Amino acid sequence: MKLYDCKAAANPRSIRMALAEKAIDVECVQIDLFKGEQHGEAFRKINPFGSVPCLELDDGAVIGESAAIARYLEARQPQPRLLGSTPKEQAVIAMWQRRVEDGVLNAATTFFHHATSGLGETGRYRNADWGQANKKRFVDALGMLDRQLAGRAYVAGDGFSFADITAICGIDFAKAVGIELPDGLPNLKAWHARISSRPSASA
Amino acid sequence: MKLYDCKAAANPRSIRMALAEKAIDVECVQIDLFKGEQHGEAFRKINPFGSVPCLELDDGAVIGESAAIARYLEARQPQPRLLGSTPKEQAVIAMWQRRVEDGVLNAATTFFHHATSGLGETGRYRNADWGQANKKRFVDALGMLDRQLAGRAYVAGDGFSFADITAICGIDFAKAVGIELPDGLPNLKAWHARISSRPSASA
């Protein structure tokens, strides 16, 4: 397997973390999003959608979309589980995964692409007001997460999951593009320190 | 189990279709989104996120987010499979599910909420330009789907899946809120007729 990756981006980091948690070793190929390499002919042959991460399987098939890659890794190597075991665990993790993907990670990347110069592309549709609305959406989602983490060590259920990975990738990306964690949020901050101390967090 | 539902909305329909495909019978409770019932105190006790669909399990736990509910139903009753069997099938379906959720269904609902009067709420943030951009995003996604459906009976892999369900729910919702299918797109239109003829399509 081969992972098309970009060290600075939020979604590829979520897959590097999942791989590290499962101790799966794959070749990583860096795609320079700031130079537009994802739009180039060579990469479009690999993923016509021009996005990273994507995972090239040994048969040549290419899986895009972080949640789909996480699902593949879980099905190929279930332990340690990142997407739950019982039907209810799987559902609770999928629910929180979707909530943090939307409210935290996507909100942060939307702020980046619409309210800042983003990747530096010219001629792309930008909506600065929508970008700023997503900064607010991101901050609101942090409050929601802080409430969810009251008395809980992890975002979804009793164990560490891909929902924790998606959330920390979104939060750290937001910081990198200029959105600091607001004051307060004690549960979120304790959780953030806990997740950051995992070896996979530096993958 | 009990499904909190809204007959006119796109996401709840996707769960009604999944339930029909699997022949799972659950009590459906209608929540009137146009009257703001989802924001009322009674419903907020069930789902603080104020969204439908959500599925109340027999132990009282409530699962929100369509993809999470679909995951729960698949884990509880795997046959007929809507989310794939082998790791690669699961990944391909999850990838296309995410693509049509984003580019088709979410683009259509974003158009509805931002470029039209939506559910009729007052005082909510609206960004008409973002709404119109999503109409374009929706139409672009239909072109992408038409190419994907060349020589294929279903969106993801060889069989009918939750990706087909999500796509048709987005397309039919778009039509209901004023976005007609563009000319052309022969593969997409043949697929649409095929999926519409399934008994679950009228669930």
Short key terms for the protein model shown above:
homodimer; 203 residues; alpha+beta; Glutaredoxin; Glutathione S-transferase Yfyf (Class Pi), Chain A, domain 2; 2 domains; 4-stranded mixed beta sheet; 7 helices; 52% helix; globular
Mind explaining what this structure looks like?
The structure is a homodimer of 203-residue chains. By secondary structure, chain A is of the alpha+beta class. The first copy, chain A, has two domains: 2-76, Glutaredoxin (3-Layer(aba) Sandwich); 87-202, Up-down Bundle (Glutathione S-transferase Yfyf (Class Pi), Chain A, domain 2). Chain A has helices spanning 10-21, 41-46, 66-76, 87-115, 128-148, 162-176, 186-196, and strands at residues 2-5, 27-30, 54-56, 62-64. A four-stranded mixed beta sheet of chain A has the order 2-1-3-4, with helices on one face. In chain A, strand 3 and strand 4 (62-64) form a beta hairpin. In chain A, helix 4 packs antiparallel against helix 5 and helix 4 packs parallel to helix 6 (162-176). The mean pLDDT of chain A is 97. The A-B interface holds A 49, 57, 59, 61, 63-65, 67-69, 71-72, 75-76, 86-88, 90-92, 94-95, 97-99, 125, 127, 129-130, 133 and B 49, 57, 59, 61, 63-65, 67-69, 71-72, 75-76, 86-88, 90-92, 94-95, 97-99, 125, 127, 129-130, 133.
